[in-house]
């Protein structure tokens, strides 16, 4: 019996699922979301698919295709283990606007979001910025500095996006792990400041 | 539905068993909503229950090493998240698994946890 018991205890310990937190990586198509997730993740970025049924089909442009047609949307994600029983999951949000309903699920309970920006296509990030402002989810802007693209200062980007002064804007290279880490640290610090401000009396 | 179903049967259709065939056509999990980052723990091994259908057994199998999030299970098995949720609902009903509750959307992780995350990221 004893061995059964200790097996059980060991299993319980090993199997304590612990706490999982979620950070979203949003931005336009091809802006480097998957690259950023991959550079900081301890596992190769995984891809999971959600099959869309009526929920998505209504707003999908599927002209000429019958309404029951299903389509799939892929989400890339990665994981960072902070310590035993505390993990951070990174989700690259689907780029296309028609998957907004998935964003709702992804944003639910999220710690915060990184909006990746390519200054050559600044407008691609507008929907993401609007979404997170509306949801009051802590977010920041990370400018992915593509080789050959003109470099703008964070303040230029902030004013171009008309962002509140307290929203962090940083330059990054999504391919570099160190750079990706700095982005995530900036986001969690921002989220922490927002949480503290919300809790402060008055 | 049946017409659309038949259209899947061609060389490029992939697996002959369509994903939702594993769920008996169900698209909604019986139990709770499984969040993408809800962590799932196996309390049984697939061989404990030889009557388990293949899909359910496959889920239990990938959980033998360590707890995984719903999203990871889906990616690991290359199944749509919706299918995995239904399978998890069945497994939970049969007490083969336990599922952690993620941080509720309305509640924020506490200050100490955020501090830990920041320090942990810096130390990576």
UniProtKB/TrEMBL annotation, chain A:
The lineage of its organism: Bacteria, Bacillati, Actinomycetota, Actinomycetes, Kitasatosporales. Transmembrane segments: none annotated. Belongs to the GPN-loop GTPase family. This is ATP-binding protein. Coiled coil: none annotated. SUPFAM superfamilies: P-loop containing nucleoside triphosphate hydrolases. InterPro entries: Gliding_Motility_GTPase, Gpn, P-loop_NTPase. It comes from Mangrovactinospora gilvigrisea. GO terms for molecular function: ATP binding; GTP binding; hydrolase activity. The keyword Ribosomal protein does not apply. Keywords: ATP-binding, GTP-binding, Hydrolase, Nucleotide-binding. The keyword Nucleotide-binding applies. It comes from the Bacteria.
TrEMBL record, chain B:
It holds the Pfam family DUF742. InterPro entries: DUF742 (IPR007995), WH_DNA-bd_sf (IPR036390). This is DUF742 domain-containing protein.
């Amino acid at each position: 019996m004893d061995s059964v018991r200790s097996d059980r205890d060991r299993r319980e310990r090993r199997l304590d699922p612990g706490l999982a937190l979620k950070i979203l990586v949003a931005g336009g198509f091809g802006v480097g979301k998957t690259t950023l997730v991959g550079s900081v993740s301890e596992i190769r970025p995984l891809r999971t698919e959600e099959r869309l049924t009526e929920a998505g089909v209504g707003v999908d442009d599927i002209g000429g295709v019958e309404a029951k047609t299903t389509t799939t949307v892929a989400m890339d994600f990665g994981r960072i283990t902070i310590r035993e029983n505390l993990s951070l999951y990174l989700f690259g949000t689907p780029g296309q606007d028609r998957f907004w309903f998935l964003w709702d699920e992804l944003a639910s309970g999220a710690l915060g979001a990184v909006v990746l920006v390519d200054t050559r296509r600044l407008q691609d990030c507008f929907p993401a910025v609007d979404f997170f402002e509306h949801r009051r989810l802590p977010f920041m802007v990370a400018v992915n500095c593509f080789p050959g693209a003109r470099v703008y200062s964070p303040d230029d980007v902030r004013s171009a996006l008309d962002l509140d002064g307290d929203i962090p804007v940083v330059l990054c290279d999504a391919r570099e792990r160190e750079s990706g880490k700095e982005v995530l640290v900036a986001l969690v610090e921002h989220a922490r400041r927002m949480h503290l401000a919300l809790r402060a009396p008055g | 539905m049946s017409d659309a179903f038949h259209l899947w049967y061609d060389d490029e259709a992939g697996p002959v068993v369509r994903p939702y065939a594993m769920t008996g056509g169900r698209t909604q999990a019986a139990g709770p909503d499984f969040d993408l980052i809800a962590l799932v723990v196996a309390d049984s091994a697939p061989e404990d229950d030889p009557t388990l259908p293949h899909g359910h057994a496959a889920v239990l199998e990938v959980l033998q090493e360590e707890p995984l999030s719903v999203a990871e299970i889906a990616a690991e098995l290359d199944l749509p998240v919706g299918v995995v949720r239904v399978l998890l609902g069945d497994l939970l009903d049969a007490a083969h698994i336990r599922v952690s509750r993620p941080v509720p959307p309305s509640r924020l992780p506490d200050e100490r946890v955020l501090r830990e995350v920041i320090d942990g990221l810096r130390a990576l």
